[in-house]
Write a structure and sequence with these properties.
The complex is a heterodimer of chains A (about 300) and B (about 800).
Chain A (H helix, E strand, L loop, with lengths): L2 H5 L5 H5 L1 H15 L5 E5 L2 E5 L1 H5 L3 H8 L3 H5 L1 E3 L5 H13 L15 H10 L13 H8 L21 H4 L4 H7 L7 H13 L7 H13 L3 H18 L5 H11 L6 H12 L7 H9 L1 H12 L4
Parallel strand pairs in A: 1-3
Antiparallel strand pairs in A: 1-2
Helix pairs in contact in A: 3-7, 7-13, 13-14, 13-15, 14-16, 15-17, 16-18
Chain B lengths: L18 H16 L8 H13 L3 H26 L3 H4 L11 H32 L1 H10 L5 H14 L10 H17 L6 H13 L13 H27 L2 H21 L6 H14 L2 H5 L5 H6 L3 H14 L4 H27 L1 H11 L10 H4 L2 H27 L4 H17 L3 H16 L5 H17 L3 H17 L6 H15 L1 H32 L46 H17 L13 E7 L7 E7 H12 L5 E3 H8 L3 H13 L6 E4 L10 E4 L9 E3 L12 H30 L1 E3 H12 L7 H13 L3 E4 L6 E4 L2
Parallel strand pairs in B: 2-6
Antiparallel strand pairs in B: 1-2, 3-5, 4-5, 7-9, 8-9
Classes of the chains: A mainly alpha (about 300), B mainly alpha (about 800).
Pfam family, one (chain A): BTB
Protein name (chain A): BTB domain-containing protein
InterPro entries (chain A): BTB/POZ_dom (IPR000210), SKP1/BTB/POZ_sf (IPR011333)
Amino acid sequence: MASGPSASRSPSSRVDNCPTADLFNALSALHVGGKYSDLTILCNYRQWAVHRAILCSRSGFFDGACGSEFAEADSRVIDLSEDDEEAVNLMIHFYYHLDYLNEPEQPRATDFRHRALSDARRKPPQKLDLSLVCDPLMAVAGFYTPDTPVSPVTPPKDGSESLDSSTKVPRSPTRRRAQTPPLIQDGESDDESYDEEEDLPEDQANLMIHARVYALAEKYDIPSLKHIAKQKLEMAMACNYDSPDLPLAIEEVYCSTIDTDRGLRDIVCEAFRCHPQLASTPDVRQAISELPSLALDLFKIERGIPV
Amino acid sequence: MVSKIRPPRRGLNGADVDFHTTWGILETAFREIHTKNASALSFEELYRNAYKIVLKKKGEELYNRVAHFEEQWLGTNVRSGIVKTLSAPLMLTDGAGRTLATTNERREAGEKFLKSLKQAWEDHQVCMGMLTDVLMYMDRVYCTDHHQPSIFAKSMGLFRDQILRTPVRQGAPTLLEILTRIILDQIQMDRDGESIDQFLIKSNVYMLEGLYQSNQEVEDAKLYLKPFEREFLRQSAEFYRDEGERLLKESDAGTYCRHAKRRIDEENDRCRSTLSESTTPKIQAVVEDELIRNKMKGLIEMESGVAFMVDNDKLHELSLVFDLEARVDPRKPELTKAMQKIIAEMGTNINNAAIAVSESAPQTELAPAEDQPEEGKTKGAPAKAINQQTVAALKWVEEILTLKDRFDNICKHSFVADQTVSTAINRSMADVINAFSRGSEYISLFIDDNMKRGIKDKSEAEVDATLEKSILVLRYLSDKDIFETYYKKHLCKRLLLKKSQSVEVEKQMISRMKIELGNSFTLKLEAMFKDMTLSEELSNGYRNHVAGMNEGADSRRAELSIKVLTSMTWPLEAFRSGTDGGEQEGGGGRTQIIYPPSILRVKEGFERFYSQKYSGRKLTWQNNMGDADLKARFPNSRHAVHDVNCSTYAMLILLLFNELPTNASATLEEIEARTNIPLDDLKRNLQSLAVAPKTRFLIKEPMSRDINAGDRFKWNSEYNSKFLRIKVGVVSAGNKVEGDRERKETEKKNNDSRGFAIEAAVVRIMKQRKELAHAQLLTETITQLTHQFRPDVNMIKKRVESLIEREYLERVEEAPVPSYRYLA
């Protein structure tokens, strides 16, 4: 699943030759540039210019919203303010990249391939677009973190390209996310999203966000996203089960979907099974005491009853 | 680092979802949706609310509320609207449920009802589509987990129960019954030629197709199939049964066919335009049953039925009948039966006519028989010259061919050369031909006549056609061995008497038969031709031999042209007089002809020559078949010398008179004694020489038609003829068609040869199988022999019996079924 986005890393010759890469490049450009957008997603103060063709064809919810005779079909605006902004953002990212939170080391294409070429021929870029600049120094200085759980999902076959020093530098996903442009590129909006990011702890294992994306995918009927979110949470849980994020993530897992949805619940239970010491943290303990169904699951594990 | 513990998210963690409030929002929205006011509603909000309810495990309650809401809505708001459109013309019925209103009134009222029902259905579909979108999460999670039908399916069931299955009022029919009645009524109008709104009906049919009888949604329990389609088919069957009966009485067969075809097409179109395509095969079966299958017999036997069509060459109408029956049964049994009957009738007529012609012969036969000697010479009045039997044979073959052509034509043009029907027609033709006892003989006679006269002055193509015709008839004949006997006889006569117009055509005929009947059939016929060629070589050889021997020393020596015939190949008995064949049986017992010395010399000369060439072969002279060229001088004739061609016997008689003094006479007995010519042949030859006016070389006393014992003959010195060449015919021995006695004899011989063929076949089979059941032996024998003739089962039994007696076979005692064993 990561092969697509990784291919879009070098938008030059490889894109020309590989149709998949070409498509991903084009989708990326649509995502970033919002060209031909015919639907707007709102979430509090953020908004995304998206495409009905891409969203509605893969989600019952968006199809229903745009296809029936409700207000959204006419206004072409869907307000998802009730949902978590970050999760919505990742969901939209997924629509265009078939993945989320796996950070490409090179800037993504922001324009169509043919346009980029012809524009380059016609006139030099008038404004320096920082998102297009690879600055290894800045990357090393500002955003070095130990291997994030994201890395396992980047395919190992990228070895040949990792000669470029910049590709070796894992970036903070949050930084990268900040640069996926909101629809309005003025300072105010930029600041807003920036503030939001400052809130997030830099060492977080993303447990929480995966659980939220999972719930969102369930709510809006996007099975493939659900699947990816589950895989990512599983990976993150394996690496960062001791994250301070855990109690919240557990609560999210047990509250955001119906009881019969075992997907994430099994992952949580597995974590408890492998690391019984987890339950000794006060935060986790409190979460257990608040979630009877989790307590029941843990009881069953203790007694060896199949969950 | 900010706080790690965040407050619970709104609406997700706490039990803050108040079902009633949330449901209230949804219910209001649903009401708006049903009144087509959805455009102000936020889909996201409704979806979120429904999602929350389900997430909070209130899915079941939500589901039931929605169902209840729909039930209420349909039952109160929708149904009343539809019931209102049920106007008087639809409800006014007499006791039998028949409406009393006029067609026009009924149509308009019906359309109004159909329109409102269609509208209600379509609205319901649209609204439920929207509700389904809103309640997507409920369908996906609650309905799947609890095995409930989707809310859409549920609401369709509600529509069925609330709208269609609820009586209009107490004791009145349900809307479904009314709907069925109205649609059927409209279809009836359509059948009667009035225009209806097909699309409107189709929309309602769509509705019935979309609904199921129960909530299980079994595919073959659609509302359309069960009450509606069944009723439709029943009513259609009734309609077409009546219509078919009426039409059979009122119109002719052609019109009926056209009408039936049109009705079938109409029903097909109706299924496409008004009802459902899935009904097409069913209604087609109904129409086919009622208009074709059940009426075919009546249709064919109508006064204007198949027989009439055949009689009047109504090819197109026959093709209509064919098309109709082909629809219901690929074997076309009724039509086939009818055609076979017609052929059998026509064939019997032809056969009877032929017998009548041949039996009328005896009265008129004497006169032409008299003229027969001149047949070869006189070309005038050929019809008179031809034997009555030949006339019958020619007529029969021609008529059979015409009959065949006629039905072939019908088959090709009306029955698209259908395999089944043409096979049946062929079988009937074969039956007709084989039912005629003289078939084999007549076919051979037909060929004989054509070979002698028919193909004269004809182009190659015409000759070809004639040959083909004979083969055509021959193909049907089952007793091919009898035909072979006759053909051999006729061919023999043609070859020896040089009656054939063209040896080339004869050979063509043989090669055609070879293709048609196989090698073994023509083997003997070809041998006859071979003998002819060999004989010619022999004659030439002998002539040269004679010339070389005494160098023209004896120019008066008679020339000899000889035909040496292999004795088994040639049916020489054909030349023996039919009247007393028994007496002349066997060449050895025959009295020795006394030849005059000049002839005897030639005969002996040739015998010497022949035995030099082929030692060990015995020549038997067939004097009765030879002929001779003489030079005759008559003092008072216009010509000094006449060339006379006559039979060998006539030559002997004439040479006898050469030796007598001019006015001396000889009695019949004297002539017989001096020549040793069999009395019967002698009489016939004397008849030609002394009675026939044109060749009266002798004077007979007393002058009368018949030759009797004691008659005297003397040289006719007064003979005068304007012709230089005179051919003396011989009153032919027997007629061309056999007499009864001769036929019996042929039959007997035939039976004997058949007996041998059967024995040979039985032995062949048993030798191979060693042991075989009786029934199986019979069938195998019959199969082996069919290409020759149709063996009689009794005959086979007798032959098997005789083979057992002669210890070729024995019965197997212990076998469960009667069986035989081959004894080597």
